[in-house]
Amino acid sequence: MLNINSLLNNDCEQDNNTRTPSLSPSLTSSPSSVSSSYSSYPFPTQQDFWDKEEDYDDIRVKAKRRRANGEQLEVLNRVFDRTFFPSTQVRAELGRQLGMSPRTVQIWFQNRRQAMRTKERQRLIKLRNESKVKSA
């Protein structure tokens, strides 16, 4: 069993070889060839809709989105301070301990990384603008 407490322990000694997590962009690329021909796609006709008898009582309603509470945020931020990219096992364990799905934990980390990138980008733009003003 994975122990999240080892990630959260602030008294844990870090050796000098430990690197700060990087926010470098993903090295994977999107698929290069996507077919643009949809001519053979079988579009449904109006008659197709009338022929199907669906029981709308069985359709599941999407759950309402919830914000993480203070305790969840505290734990998530402490783990984020240790690693920007938690493993699948860490996400699953965090989800279990915090009462969240692993997918929700994954999305929280994605949003947090993007917020850091945005903040860093804004900081660099501000520095660049300040240096232009000083040199002018």
UniProtKB/TrEMBL annotation:
UniProt xrefs under SMART domains: HOX (SM00389)
The protein's name in its UniProt record: Homeobox domain-containing protein
Gene Ontology molecular functions: DNA-binding transcription factor activity, RNA polymerase II-specific; sequence-specific double-stranded DNA binding
Low complexity composition-biased segments: 20-42
Coiled coil: none
Gene3D superfamilies: Homeodomain-like
Family annotation (CDD domains): homeodomain
GO annotation, cellular component aspect: nucleus
Classification via Pfam families: Homeodomain (PF00046)
Disordered as annotated region, ranges: 1-47
DNA-binding region location: 61-120
PANTHER family with a match to the protein in the record: HOMEOBOX DOMAIN-CONTAINING PROTEIN (PTHR46255:SF3), SHORT STATURE HOMEOBOX (PTHR46255)
Organism ancestry: Eukaryota, Fungi, Fungi incertae sedis, Mucoromycota, Mucoromycotina
Compartments where located: Nucleus
Compositional bias ranges of the Polar residues kind: 1-19
Signal peptide: none
Residue ranges constituting the Homeobox domain according to the UniProt record: 59-119
Alphabetic keyword roster: DNA-binding, Homeobox, Nucleus
